[in-house]
Design brief:
79% of the residues lie in helices and 1% in strands. It has helices at residues 19-45, 47-54, 60-73, 77-92, 94-114, 118-121, 123-154, 160-198, 200-204, 206-218, 224-235, 245-251, 253-284, 289-317, 319-342, 346-364, 367-370, 380-396, 399-410, 415-434, 453-460, 463-466, 470-484; strands at 15-16, 449-450. The chain contains 23 helices and two strands. It is mostly helical and 485 residues long. The chain folds into three domains: 24-223, MFS general substrate transporter like domains (Growth Hormone, Chain: A, Up-down Bundle), CATH 1.20.1250.20; 254-437, Growth Hormone, Chain: A, CATH 1.20.1250; 447-479, no CATH class.
């Protein structure tokens, strides 16, 4: 594993971050994430409509199951995309990969809007929808993990939480834009107008968004942490092979498992509220489509300042405690939240959604900045891409389908709540036992990132704190040497 040479630290060794440039990086990477979730938003809010367009022979909740199965099956490609783009990101740099993924996402989303309906070309329409979703899955396999890595490596250590939360602000903004556009079109065109042709409009919007994101990302600088690794390899005047995927699975088993669990409880909650809930309110509970869409839209708008607050609190009090608060909330309030959704009262339905949103906000404010801290710089992109996307594919992307399936088989509309409670319990046990606080610390394998020269001088006087990860690096190198023998 690549580590910083052991010598006396100097103030010039520290990475001094220009916070304004860090915010620019958050905006450029967040826009790509916004576009990804713009697609998720329009697909989720159009789930009932897409079911009628591409699966007209199915009826009721079964039609919804098929629609979300198409949504979920695209996640098969995410680990493959993570494998490919993760390797490229650790070898060629974070910036280059992020410019590729945003173009692929925009193109595949545009293609969905061009597919003829089932009535026009039969089953071919369903297969074309699946093909476009697979391309989306492949490109997003490198998108979110790359964005997390880029922001974490571009932020000062003491502000990593609040800047990382900006990635989820992008998520919510993209989802709000997508769902808001669908809500507006549904109000103007009506349900039948959306089925006839209106559903295509949101997918066409993806193309200009992708071009804007591409332009912004091409004007970003490569992260300082990645440049440090390249310079370190050149300074050592030796050919040190880059750790392989085999090395990652061999030496980072604990971190990979922990990452998978964190991503699971984060994304199951995320997809339950943002992807599945519009259809649950409409198809399962019988709420008017436009009313349910508007309620969730309002909840997402309220989540934006809460997510930023949680990011700030994670910097101040620690990412572990904020995440644990979210898990406790999920365990205690998932069932009451779904009971409130049953009530035929707009206020109680809103409160039920808000309870779930508060739990999710704790995760959204901490996870984007927390996951990159699990891995060393030279393996970070690959390790994150693979573990994140495997977990999202198995747990996150299947959440709407599993929720629909459980209700269809049991005829109990509280089953999604029981699922959330189980996820919260497992997540709480694993996370509490295995995760160690990383807020305010330098990234593993990197020198401290500070905002001023005064901070750099303070870090020099406390080298053990500055390079807290060196003991881990030494143990990894020892294991590697023993394995080579």
């Amino acid at each position: 594993m690549n580590t910083t040479k052991k010598r006396k630290l100097l103030p010039n060794d520290m990475t001094i971050i220009d916070t304004s440039q860090a915010r620019k990086a958050v905006f450029a990477t967040g826009l790509g994430n916004a576009m990804e979730w713009f697609d998720f938003g329009i697909y989720s809010y159009l789930a009932v409509t897409i079911g009628k367009v591409f699966f007209p022979e199915m009826e009721g909740t079964l039609q919804l199951v098929y629609t979300f199965a198409t949504f979920a099956i695209a996640f098969i490609m995410r680990p493959i995309g993570g494998f490919v783009f993760g390797a490229l990101g650790d070898r060629l740099g974070r910036k280059r990969v992020l410019t590729i993924t945003i173009l692929m996402m925009a193109f595949s989303t545009l293609c969905i809007g061009l597919i003829p309906s089932y009535q026009s070309i039969g089953l071919t329409a369903s297969f074309l929808l699946l093909a476009a979703r697979l391309v989306q899955g492949f490109s997003t396999g490198g998108e979110y993990s790359g964005a997390m890595t880029y922001i974490a490596e571009s932020a000062p250590d003491k502000k990593r939480g609040i800047l990382g939360s900006g990635l989820e602000v992008g998520t919510l903004s993209g989802y709000i834009a997508g769902s808001g556009l669908v809500t507006l079109l549904t109000f103007i065109l009506g349900d039948q107008g959306m089925v006839d042709w209106g559903w295509r409009i949101p997918f066409f919007v993806a193309a200009p968004l992708g071009l804007i994101g591409f332009y912004l990302r091409t004007n970003l600088d490569e992260t300082q942490a990645f440049q440090e690794i390249q310079e370190s390899e050149q300074d050592q005047n030796e050919t040190e092979e880059q750790p392989t995927f085999k090395d990652i699975f061999l030496y980072f088993k604990k971190e990979l498992f922990l990452c998978i669990v964190i991503v699971a409880f984060f994304n199951i909650t995320n997809y339950m509220l943002l992807s599945y809930m519009p259809s649950h309110l409409n198809s399962v509970l019988g709420y008017e489509n436009s009313k349910s869409l508007l309620l969730i839209l309002v909840v997402m708008v309220l989540m934006i300042p809460i997510v930023i607050l949680m990011g700030h609190l994670s910097d101040k009090f620690g990412n572990k405690i904020i995440t644990q608060i979210g898990l406790v909330g999920l365990i205690l309030f998932a069932i009451p939240a779904f009971l409130l959704l049953r009530d035929d009262n707009i206020l109680t339905v809103f409160l039920g959604l808000l309870l779930l949103a508060l739990c999710l906000s704790c995760f959204e404010g901490t996870v984007p900045s927390m996951l990159p801290t699990l891995f060393f710089t030279d393996v970070r992109y690959r390790a994150l891409s693979v573990s994140f996307n495997v977990s999202v594919s198995i747990f996150g992307g299947t959440t709407p389908m599993i929720a629909s399936f459980l209700i269809d088989k049991t005829h109990n509309n509280l089953m999604p709540a029981f699922y959330l409670v189980l996820v919260g319990l497992i997540g709480m046990i694993v996370f509490t036992l295995m995760f160690k606080q990383t807020s305010g610390k330098s990234l593993r394998g990197s020198l401290p990132a500070v905002e001023t020269k005064a901070e750099a001088k303070k870090m020099v006087n406390n080298p053990k704190k500055a390079l807290w990860w060196r003991k881990e690096a030494k143990e990894l190198r020892k294991k590697s040497q023993e394995e080579d023998k």
